[in-house]
User: Fold these one by one.
Assistant:
Number 1:
Amino acid sequence: LDIVQSGDTIIATEVSRITRSTKQLCDIIELAKNKHIKLVLGTFVVDCSKELDPMTEGMLKMMGVFSELERNIISQRVKSGMENAKAKGKTIGRPPTTAEDIPSIFYKHYPKYKKGEINKKEFSRLCDLSYPTIYKYLSIVES
């Protein structure tokens, strides 16, 4: 939005793809009016290069309200489902990593790291693992 210039067009498949809240949508509408840009949201085209009529602006804001409502309903359902799963004793999220889960390539190069022959960056490259993963595995092995 910072680089949008007068006469540009912003295209999104639907309102929920351009904003997460009705307030943000109102800000985008004001930006569109001030910079005289065109908004294409799915099949709904809003040309702000001229005066925006109240019915179009109202429809656009209603689309935003329903989009935010849908997002909030989905969020509430997910939270409810997670609480229900927890109540049934199921664990939520990724299972914790244990020493048995660490790949053998890590253990192959670990002695070189401990002796100071390689640093963490080289260790990461040799194991083909990301830097944060190396840190995680090192904390597991060394604790």
Note: The mean pLDDT is 91.
Number 2:
Amino acid sequence: MLQLVGLLSCLGLIHATALPDLTVSNERYTGRVVGGSNAQPNMWRWQASLQHDSWNTGRYAHICGGTLLSPIYVMTAAHCILDLEVKYYRVVLGEYNLYKYEGTEQARAVTKIILHPGWTEDLANGNDIALLRLASPVTGNGYTALAELPYPGQILPNGFTCYITGWGLLATGGSTPDILQEAPIPVVEHSVCATPEWWSTAVKKTMVCAGGDGKTSGCQGDSGGPLNCFTDGAWRVHGVVSFGPAANCNMYSKPTVFTRVSSFMDWLYSEMV
């Protein structure tokens, strides 16, 4: 559920690091996130699927992505929280094909929802971040891993290539994928993204813009998921998918906007107790 925004109505600059080769046995997985491809199995092991059971019938549907920060805490976007009734939610880790049981999945009930105190339900105000406490710890079964995070205040340079991952629509108004999608997506620095031709005042310095080439973007269903960036020798989650344009997910000069994780490190660690 990438939150869509109408066009009228996401300390320290790091050095660019070469991306490791993401091929497996010289085979690139193909498919399509918008403009992406099928993710390599067991690559993004901190990726979570946030699922909701609207009628409390035991039938859950994927609504958003998430990131496993500790065995009992998952980070997602605040706008993904449709209501505060924890009984309607569950989180699945080790997921790859949403519609096929593969034996790698770990489903956990949610016992607590923690919205950032600055969240006002206005995406342009920022603070689109939340934590979910799980009913029991996620175990290390080889298909899950805790996410590495950036250092506080860390800012990615313009053009730095990260990866967006999720089960969102493959195109505006299009179909949803069975298999987790991945796509390389370049960072657009704030000084560019905040210009009138781009997102103007809708983006704050507590956000990260990425994409805007008219080809690759997040879309509805990707919200809450990670922006994965290879920095300081490891894959780290630098962003949480927040919003994009209403007219078309992959509009030129309207990149996907992420909550910048490095702006919220103190809050995250203070709540994960």
Note: Confidence is low (pLDDT under 50) at residues 6-32.
